[in-house]
Request: fold
Amino acid sequence: MDKEPGSSFPPAASKPGTAQLASCWARIRGRMREEVGEVEYRTWLRQMTLAGVEGDEAIVLLPTRFLRDWVRGHYGDRLKALWQSENPAIRRVDIRVAAGGNAGVTEPSPTQPEAGLAEGLAPRPPLRPLASAGIEKQDRAGDWIAPLEPRFTFDTFVVGKPNEFAHACARRVAEKPNSAGFNPLFLYGGVGLGKTHLMHSIAWALRERENASVAYMSAEKFMYRFIAALRSQSTMEFKESLRSVDVLMIDDLQFLIGKDNTQEEFFHTFNALVDSGKQIVVSSDKSPSDLNGIEDRLRTRLGWGMVADLHATTYELRLSIVEAKAHASGVAVPPKVLELLAHKITSNVRELEGALNRLIAHANLFGRNVTLESVQEVLADMLRAHDKRISIEEIQKKVAEHYNIRLTDMASPRRARAVARPRQVAMYLAKQLTQRSLPEIGRRFGNRDHTTVMHAVSRIAELMAADVAFAEDVALLRKMLET
Ligand code: ADP
Ligand code: MG
Reply:
C-alpha cells in the first residue's frame, strides 16, 4: 500500500543505468567528503562501495561489521538525505557488510576523481532550501516523513526496570495499532532515555509488517510545515496529506508549547485521525499534566490513551546496554571496562553510548585493545566531568580571589559594581556548574531572591556575548573550577 504517488519518482521501469548510478554515487561520496573533511572521510567512509539500487533502497557495502555499524550510526541519515537529493525515489539506504570483501561496482579508481564522474549526467536540481521550501502541490505526507534511524529497532532496545513499561506499551502498539486504551500512546522521559528509539522501533515494525504509512516527525518540523502551509495558503493540502497516514508520530511535543495556532492544528489533526481509527504516538520530556503551555483540551486529549514514562536508568540497565552495544560492535571490551562506564556515566544513554563509541573508535584507529588504562586515557575529560562535584562555596571562593574581593561580599547586601559584578559571575557559574536550583543558589548568596539569580545569569550571558575579554575571563574561571 504505497500511498505516495510522489511526483518526481522515476517510474520503476526506467531503472537508472550503471553509469548513471556510478556518477550519482560519486557525487554523494564527494559531498560526504566535503562535509566531513578528509581525515574523517578516510577513516570511516573511504571503503564504502555501492552494491546497487533495488526498488527504493540503495545498498552500500563496508568491509567490516564495525565499519558498517559506525557508518550506519554516524552517517546513515546523511547518506540517505544525499541519496534522496539525487533521487527522491530512494527511501532507504541499507548499509551492509560486504560478503567476502570488495563487491562494489562503483568504487572510483584513483585515476578517476569523483568530480570527473559527475560530468555527462544532467545533475538533478538541488534539494529545495528549507526556508523557501513551502508546500507545493506534490507535497504528500511521504515527502516529509523524517527518516527513520536504522539502529532504532526493538531488537536493539535493551529492556530493564526503568523502561519496561514504556517498552511493553510500544510493543503493543506496534503489534496492534489503535487498540483500545493505547491511542494515543504518550511516551515521556528525560533526554537520551530512549523515546525516539522506541518511536522509530514502532514505525519500523509497522512499516515492515503492515506496510503502514507512518508519518514520524519532530514537533518542530510539524510546526514548520504548518506555518509554511499557512504562508503559501495550502493548509488544505497540508491537512489532507497528514490525515491520509495510518500512524502519526510527533516527537518532542514540548516544542509546541506556546505555539497556539500550531497546537490548534495539531489538535484537529489529532482528533481527525483518532476518529478515523488511526494510531497516534507522541513523545515529550514531561507528562501531559506537567506540560505547561499546552492548551487544556489538547492536554486532556493527550492523556486519554496510554501514558508511559521512561525512568532514569539504573546501574543494571546501563550495564546491559553497554554490554549489548559492545557485543554488537564486534570489538572485545573487558567486563571491567563496561562496569566502569555503567558506574560513571549515569546521565543518560546517549552519553554512555558516546563514551563506548569513542573507546571502540580509538581501539580501531590505533589497532589496540580496549583496556582499563585506555579508558582513563580516552575518556579522561568525560570521567572527570562526572567525578567532580563543584560546590557553590568553591565557586564563590575562586571568583572572589579572581576579582580580589572578600568572600563575605558574595553574601553581603553591597551593590557597588565592584562587588556586584563578581557576585553575578559567581551566580552564573553556580547555575552552570552545579545542579542547584535558582532559589537554592539565591539563598547561598545572602538570601537573595531567585529572580535576582535569574537576572544575574542572563546579564552575564549578555556581557559575555558582547565582550570577548570578559567572556574569556569567565571561561578561564570555569576551567579552573572544572579541573
Ligand atoms: P530520547 O529521544 O529519549 O532523547 P533516544 O531515543 O534518542 O533518546 O536515545 C538516545 C540514545 O540512547 C540512542 O542512541 C538510543 O539508541 C540509545 N538508547 C536509549 N535507551 C536505550 C535502550 N534501552 N537500549 C539501547 N539503546 C538505548
Ligand atoms: Mg528524542
Residues 152, 156-158, 163, 189, 191-197, 321, 349-350, 353 surround adenosine-5'-diphosphate (ligand 1) (CB under 6 Å).
